[in-house]
Specification:
single chain; mainly alpha; 4 helices; 51% helix
Amino acid sequence: MNRKTSNPQARRCANLRHLSEQLTDEGVLSLAAQGEILGGLTEQHLRALLASEPMSDEVAREIEWTMQRPVGWLDAPRTDVLDN
């Protein structure tokens, strides 16, 4: 069942998963390479964030900047992203 969440950390995680899936679709398969693209995250840090570890505002803004998304993009509910 797809439902929108009001939890900001859950939205960040869902949107990060969306970005990770986009990178995978573009041929960036390893989490190490994706982490580097997403603002210089280590593979371990990216793996933790994808597993719902809380994401700091600083990390969120860096990911948005490197992925050319507007400030707050990771915090906004998406209709094209499924919450897990």
